[in-house]
Structure formats: C-alpha cells, structure tokens
Amino acid sequence: MSGLRAAGFPERAVRARARTGTAEVFPAAQSYGAELFGADPQAGPRAPDALDALRIVPPVFMPRRLEKLIDLGREPSYEDVDLRTPVGGFASELPFYLSAFGSTRAGNGDLGVAAARQAARLGIPMVIGENMVPVHGYRRGGDDGTRSALLARVAAYAETVTDGVGGVVVQQSTEDADSEVWNLLYSDPGTRPLRDSGRLGFELKAGQGAKPGLGGMTVVDACEADRLAGQFSVRDLLGDPGRRLRSATPGTFTEEIVRQQLRFMRNNFPLARTWVKFHPGRDIARAAATAWAAGADAVTVDGAEGGTGWAPRVFLEEVGLPLGECLRRIGTPGGDLLATGRIWEGGRAVRVLALGATAVGLGRAALLAVDEDPREGLVRLVEALALETRLLVSAVGQYRAADLSPQDVWSPDAPAASPAVPVGDRS
C-alpha cells in the first residue's frame, strides 16, 4: 500500500495521524512555551476576517469638532483626544488592558513580571490568568524572599503603578476555587493597598477564545505530572515519553450559576471589582446580559482569534465565533464590555471600540513585545497603538474613545445608502 495516493484529499494529515495517533490532535509538544497560539499560524500577522473587513469612515460634517474648537479657542488636533477610560471599575490611562496569561511558561517567569511592570507604568489594568496557584503554589516569600509566580506579578505591578490608576484582576477557575485563590489574595497583607484603594478585582472565568468549551491545557514533564495528578487530569497523549497533557475542567455554567457566583463575589469580597470572562459562544449576548444584570463590573469577551493558549488544533482553527460576530450579537452593551482577540494595532482596536467595547485587551501581542524588549517593549507597542487610536478617533470627529459608535465603521456587506437629495431639488 506504500504507493497509494489520494488525489484531492488531505493525505499528509491522514498519514501523520496514522503514524503518531493522538499526538496529531495538538500542536507539537515541544512548541509549548515557545510559541503563542490562538490564530492561524499560516496566515501571518494579519489574516483578514469580518472585523478587519470593516472600514473606518470619517464623516464630512463634524459638529463635535466645532464644539471642541470653540472650547479650545483653536483648531483641535489628534493630540486633544483624551484616551483615559474607566475599565471595569478601574481608572485607566488608555482604553487598553493586559489580557490574562496564566500558568504557561511564557507568562509564568520573567516575561510575566516584566509585562506586569510595563502595564503598571502605562497605567492600564492587568489580568492574571487561571491555575497559577494550583500549578505553582502560593508563597508570600520565605527566608530567601522567593514569592510564588502569582504574587511576583502582583508585587511587580503594585510597586510600579501610579496611585489612582490601574488595577490587578485575578481569574479563578474550578481548580483555583478549590485552592481558595480569591480568599488568599483578599486577605493577604501584601495586596491590601490594592484592595483598599479599589484596585483589586476578581474574574470568574467561564471560557476562553483559544478553546471554547474546554478548560486549560498545559504540557508538563513526567515529574510535574506526578505532582499534579491529584488535582488535574494528566494523560500520555502527546507521543513524547517525557511530556504529558495536563487538563483543567472548564466548569459548568447556567444563567443561575453565573448569578450566584457574582452574588458570592460581591458578598464575600466587597472591596474587589467583579469581572466575568466568556468564550465566544453562540449565546454570548444572553451570557453578557446575565452577568451585567447580576452586577458584574465588566464582561470580557474572548473572540475565537484570542488566547495565547496551547490547545487542540481543531479548536484553534474551527471552534468559536470571531470577535466581530460576538460584538454584533451583543449589540448595545449593558455595562463595561472588554474585548480581546488579535488586537495589536490601532485600526483593529478602534473598530472594536466602535462596535461597543469599552476597552481592548492585549495578550499575544503583549507577550511578543515583552519578549522583544523586557524593559520597554510593551510600553513602545502601546505608545504606537495609542497614537494610531488618537489619530483615528480624531479623524471621525470625536475626542474620547467612548464617543465612537457603529456609525464610524462601514461593512462591505452593508446595504447601499440612499443617495442624498441636493437641497435645491427638494420639493
């Protein structure tokens, strides 16, 4: 059978599965911690999607620019655009936040701490992802002063951020709940300055864009697999005797469970902000509305383009709604809407803001920027993004990001507008 060929069929993929079995379901185990996933790796930095297809369309007549001119006593410019934005209960210098990355190797070590410091310098909120404590423990610092990975990132942020801006939000998954992560943080003397100043938040994680409907997945070595086997599902599915697949459970959610969880968060942690993160599911509008009605300070929507997570290939390529469709289904938000999914430049950020988002998250782009320059990479990336955002917001005749609206973008699928009737021809 070695000479058999299958014209018009993915022969190479089938043969690879026949050779290595379940290992082909996932990206190469060796790539874990060295590559960032969540977008088509063959498509380059900007694969077109429905969101990218939108055009930003400045009007000819700009009454708000006239108001600004009168207020300033001069012609306004892009430098007059104010990007300060309330983000999920925090004051933020920009309509951006650092998206969650948790127990992965990329986010766990020096990159995570460097990203925290730079986010703090920028005065934007930072989210810390799930499974940090179940995987790495919770250590305030012993005789050697060594903190756990979670507390190292919190401390780096808190020591750098300016008073009155920013905030730290910590996710909790099912395994995190078993480890009482929120209780530990809320009662920790080291986090008290953030808590008492209203700059500590907790995010209920109901899903993520990289693998909607699944929990976190991590590649671990054999020694770590033995240590974690009592807390997680650990399986030999990767075709590598030195590596195992550690899987977390996604949790079970209904509308009532979300309401109860938010009630629990507000009652038990009254000084903390309450966020909820949803994957890009087909009922995303109902999920977001449920969370806002239950008092969530913010709802995070992670589009199918989002996530730095290592996940099964079929999920990375075929599961979940694109971010633009999530925003279309939600329509007018019922509260702060935070959106993430391949945000790396101002055009995409402004489109997302125009479609109703309060702020946009930087995940994969942030890690790449910090990897490029651990001291200044994220700051420079965000400075470039902020400049593009100011230019675009000014171009549509607005002077705050919150004033953007769906009128500022045009879709090639939209019906043609009726031609205007010249004034002299009106009867």
Structure description:
- Helices cover 37% and strands 15% of the residues.
- It has 427 residues and is an alpha/beta fold.
- The relative contact order is 0.17.
Instruction: Tell how many strands the DSSP assignment holds.
Output: 15
| Percentage of residues in DSSP E strands | 5-15%
Round the mean pLDDT to the nearest integer and report it: 88
Radius of gyration, Cα only, in angstroms? Answer: 23 Å
Give a quick rundown of the structure.
By secondary structure, this protein is an alpha/beta fold.
Summarize the topology.
Elements: H1 11-20, H2 50-53, E1 55-56, H3 63-72, E2 85-87, E3 90-92, E4 96-101, H4 105-108, H5 110-122, E5 126-128, H6 132-136, H7 149-160, E6 168-172, H8 174-178, H9 181-187, H10 192-196, E7 200-205, E8 217-221, H11 222-228, E9 233-235, E10 243-247, H12 255-268, E11 273-278, H13 284-293, E12 298-302, H14 313-318, H15 323-330, E13 337-340, H16 346-354, E14 359-362, H17 364-372, H18 377-395, E15 409-410
Helix pairs in contact: 5-7, 5-17, 5-18, 12-13, 13-15, 16-18, 17-18
Features of the shown structure:
427 residues, three-stranded antiparallel β-sheet, globular
